[in-house]
Amino acid sequence: MSVNFNKIDGPLPVGPMPEPQRNGNGTSGASGDFARDLSVASAMPSPPPEVSAEVQGAARAAARLHELGRELRFEQGDDGRLRVELRDHAGNVLRQVPTAEIFDFAAGKVMT
What we know:
alpha+beta, 32% helix
């Protein structure tokens, strides 16, 4: 499966990430205890099953698009609106996709 996000812009300017702070032992992060940090992260709530099912459906549709030699590309237009293009793997634009169709894609329907 391939999802191509060459450029992701939000509503605000994006700046460089600061260097992570290092602990005295040379590790990054707040505690420096990877096992403890991992256990805290794994205790985070999982998304509801219906959300997981929708994400899996979208992933299956994206994989099918890839098999067909297609990909979706999301960009912010000059007017600030979301622009979605269906492209072949060479980068040629096959068509502009109305954003309403993206919901069909997320539901697992494949565009051609």
